[in-house]
Amino acid sequence: MQQNYVCFYVKSLLTLLFLFIGSLVFAESGPLTHKPKGDAPPSKVDQMRELLPDLIVSEISEDSAGNIIVKIKNIGKSGIKASEYERSSNQAFIELTIDGKSTKNMLATVDPQRALTHPNREVYWNTGQKVWQDPADLKTEVIVRIDPSNQIKEKDKNNNELKKLFSRFIPVKSDLIVKRIYRCGPNISFCMEFENKGNKEFRGSFVFNVDIFQFGVDLGSIVKGHNIMLHNRQGIVVAQISGGGSYSCRNVVIPANTTFLPTGVLCSFERIFSITPDIPEEGFDVQIRLLINEEGKPEKHSRFNFHITK
C-alpha cells in the first residue's frame, strides 16, 4: 500500500514537471502570449504624410547662352496648394546661391504656370544668372534650396537642396579681332579699332584688305590708287571711296583684353578710307580680311563685316 502511494506521488510530480516545462516552451512561441512578428500598420500621421507634395531639385545645368538652368520636380502624391503662389507675406521662395551670394526667387516667378500644383510635374527654371560671371573664373559653385523658410508642407524636407560645382579649362591664347570701324577726322574718314579678346598678350604682325560691297555686289578691294564708286538704287554714282594705301602693323604688342588703335610708327595707316562727297542713303558694307602672323604660330585668316550708314 505504501509502495503504491509512493509511485503515485512520483508520477504526479513528473507530470507536473513535464507540464511546467511544456508551458515555458509554449509561452516562448505560442499564440496566447506573443503576436506574430511583422511591421506595424502605418499610423494616421504617416498616411497623411504620404499624401503630401515632395519637391526636389533634380538638376542644375548650363544652357548654350551660359545661363544657369534649374529643374525642380514634385515627386509627391499631391500638388502644392495654389495659395503658396499668392501669399503676399511669408511666401515660399527658391534660394539661389552663386559662389556664396544668395538671391530669393518667389515661387510664382520660378513656376509661373504653377506646374508644381500637380504631382509628377517638373519646372525648367532659367535663372537668368550666368555660370561664368567673371571671364577668368575656372570654378563656380551653385546651390539651389527649395523653401528654406519651410512654408510648404512636404513629405520630406531633407531633399530640398542640390549643389553643383561647374569647372572649365580656359586655354591661354591671344585672340585679335576688328572691334569696330568708326568715323574719325574731317572729310568723312573712317578709322579702325582692334581688340585682343584673349587672355594672353598678342605679339606679332598683321595685314588686312578692305573689301566694299553694295546691294550684295562685291565692288572690289581698296588698294593704293584704287577708288571705288558707290551708287544709289537707280544706279547713279553718288559717292567715291578712296583707300588709304597698304594696311599693316609690324611687331606690335597688345596686352590681353585690351583695345588697340593702329597709330604710330608700327602701323602704316591711321585712316582706312574716306568718302566724298557723303555716305549714300543706301549705305554700303565693308569686309575686313585680316591676315595674322603671331610669333611662333602659322598665319590665320579672319573676316569681319560692318555696315556703314549715315
> Which range best describes the helical content: under 10%, 10-25%, 25-40%, 40-55%, 55-70% or over 70%?
10-25%
User: From the alpha-carbon coordinates, what is the Rg to the nearest angstrom?
Assistant: 41 Å
Global outline: elongated
Q: Could you give a short account of the major beta sheet?
A: 6 strands, antiparallel
| Unreliable residue stretches | 25-34
Measured distance between first and last alpha carbons: 144 Å
Order of helices and strands: HHEEHEEHEEEEEEEEEEEEEE
Give the averaged pLDDT, no decimals.
86
Structural class, by secondary structure, is mainly beta
Percent of residues in beta strands?
35-45%
Q: Would you count the extended β strands for me?
A: 18
Instruction: Please count the helical segments.
Output: 4
List keywords for this structure.
five-stranded antiparallel β-sheet, elongated, 310 residues, six-stranded antiparallel β-sheet
